[in-house]
Amino acid sequence: MTNILNFFDQENKSLKRLGLALSGGGAKGMAHLGILQFFREENVNFHAVSGTSIGAIVGAFYCKGYTPLETLDFFKNTSFFSFDKFSWGSKGLIDSSKFIDDFKKYFPENNFSELEKPLVVCATDILEGKEAVFNNGKLIEALLSSAAFPGMISPMEWNDKLYADGGILNNLPASHIRHECEYVVGIKLQPIEHMKKSDINSTFDLLARVYELNGLSTELREMDHCDLALVPKHLLFVSTFNVKSEDLERTFELGYEYAREYFSAQQKELDNLKKRSE
Q1: Which of 2, 7, 18, 124 is 20 to 30 A from 206 in CA distance terms?
Q2: Per-position DSSP letters for 62-123, written without gaps between them
Q3: Which residues are registered as beta bridge partners of 149?
Q4: CB atoms within 10 A of CB 91
């Protein structure tokens, strides 16, 4: 890991104009892609990205140059709950290291240096109890560390450390690019609203809800670092763990619809983003 400011200085001596912070949220992350598809069609381009968990993965694909639709295909074609991914007797139901080969097809060099734009990835250092921030070195290990949902996906073990989901301590890492960007857009996938008892039907639903509530105060703090915060309420009842292909597509569409509706009422804001993209 390197100093964040030095990292951006190495990439470009000038201040990055438009930054994007992507929150965690499991399968809800397909809404990130839908929103990015809208931005793509409107010629809004971000110069630097930070992300946690699914937000880090989406950010990596974006910074590599993959389109939102190409990234959606990756998620649709990757077997997240297949038998060979299960981690019998380990620290999670699913072995995080078994996804490395899936990612290498898209990131063959497995290094931050292969990305076209700066990316900051947030994970949690379980042993030291603090944030771990990655911006150079091994890319895939950093992504899998950031997305290792406790109890569900085993922590990543590397660098003599044990890393788990970045959302434990920082689910919307806008602060890590705040001082390097003139304008920061944050996308928070998990609106906290009242739920009925009937909305929680499984252990997965309960875990997701507890996780959302646990990270609320940190997300609100990080939203203060955003010049524009997008919180698509369409996602309230989208399951964090639903990875069926048709549901991923629907969540993608929800993100796209949210962005289209939001910016149809905020044309000046969209024009501002376009100008900063130039």
Answers
A1: 124
A2: HHHT--HHHHHHHHHHS-TT-GGGB-TTSSEEE-GGGGHHHHHTT-TT-SGGG-SS-EEEEE
A3: none
A4: 17
| Cβ neighbour number for residue 136 with a 10 Å cutoff | 15
Just list the catalytic residues.
53, 165
pTM of the model: 0.88
pLDDT in tens, 102-137: 999 999 999 999 999 999 999 999 999 999 999 999
DSSP labels, 208-260: HHHHHHHTHHHHHHHHTT-SEEE--GGGTTS-TT---HHHHHHHHHHHHHHHH
The CATH classification of domain 4-273, taken from the options 3.40.50.1370, 3.60.150.10, 3.40.1090.10, 3.10.20.310: 3.40.1090.10
Q: For residues 209 and 158, give the distance between their C-alpha atoms in angstroms, rounded to a whole number.
A: 29
Show the tokens assigned to 159. 């660098």
Question: What would the pLDDT profile of 245-274 be if each residue is shown by its tens digit?
Answer: 999 999 999 999 999 999 999 999 999 999
Region 22-49: mean pLDDT is: 97
Instruction: Find residue 158's DSSP bridge partners.
Output: 161
* Ranges of each domain in the chain: 4-273
